[in-house]
Amino acid sequence: EDNWFLTVIHRMFSGQEPYVDFEFPYGPLMIYATYAWNRVFGYSMASYYSLLALVEGLQHSLLIIVLRRYMPRFRARAFAFAIISTFMINKLMGLNYNGIRRLLPILIIGLISARPKDLLNVMVTSFLLGILLSYATEVGIACLAAIEVLYIFLQIRRGGYGNLLRGFLFGLLSVLTWVLLAKVLVNGHELSY
User: Fold this and answer.
1) Residues in CB range of 22: below 8 A, 6 or more apart
2) Whether the predicted pLDDT of 27 surpasses 70
3) Which of 93, 89, 101, 91 is CA-nearest to residue 4?
């Protein structure tokens, strides 16, 4: 995977654009963030691996923050960290295999499940989901579907139209964030996915 990403970045440095001149199967945020990093720090394997190390460090830091909040006992927290971080190992060394793709949807679903009626929470989590959709579209779509199903079940259980409206607002804001961010990243070109 690392070789493939370096080849894609090289093609972008040569003037080609993803989704126009070649296919890129992931969201535009994944490749354009990597490209921007390489423009700042230079195109090299060291630059790519430093970005990968930074992302890996961020995901483990996020995991520690979440575990500290919900698991007050150190032993339980350390055990959970050891188990979960084992599944987050990026053995293929690609930005498409990092744990953020798996951890962020779980956090978004958890945040919306904790306070599904809070309008500020709906807006913030929909913005986060829009970013996830721009980074890893297939994972983001699965997360969006899960949250919409959650709102449908809330509607069935509690009645009224508030849950349907919040679910619709969540989906709309997520998709709008995704589309606007993607359009900005690809300079207005159409995405091929």
Assistant:
1) 8, 11, 16
2) yes
3) 93
Where residue 188 falls (left for φ over 0; alpha for ψ -120 to 50; beta otherwise) is left
CB atoms within 10 A of CB 136: 24
> Rounded to an integer, what distance in angstroms lies between the CA atom of residue 11 and that of residue 65?
37
> What tens digit of pLDDT does each residue of 116-152 get?
999 999 999 999 999 999 999 999 999 999 999 999 9
- In the chain, the N- to C-terminal Cα span, in Å, equals 20
Rounded to whole angstroms, how far apart are CA atoms 99 and 60? 8
CB 134 within 8 A of CB 176: no
Q: Kindly report the CA angle at 53 between 11 and 50, in degrees rounded to 5? A: 50
